[in-house]
Amino acid sequence: MKDLISNLNKVFESRIRLGIMSILMVNDSFDFNSLKESLSVTDGNLASHLKALEDNELIKVNKQFIGRKPNTSYTITEKGVQQFKQHLNALEILVKIR
Known about the structure:
The protein has 98 residues and is α+β, with helices and mostly antiparallel strands.
């Protein structure tokens, strides 16, 4: 059974991280408040998961000002795309086993 799950990426075990990566896979970028609203999580919870993904170089943080308001948005890195696709492929293989 260990071989069946060995290709799953531990970084994506959290449903919140899975949600973040799924959103970033289909959007060029997404801002903090939109992620928070889409995933129905608190600021602190989202921030800790984003930090973990950033530390693993799976996402990139973009800070800017829009007018006078700070805006933090996130994009997926090439490494993030590759690792997330590998994780999804591993899940697909696991689901297809009878």
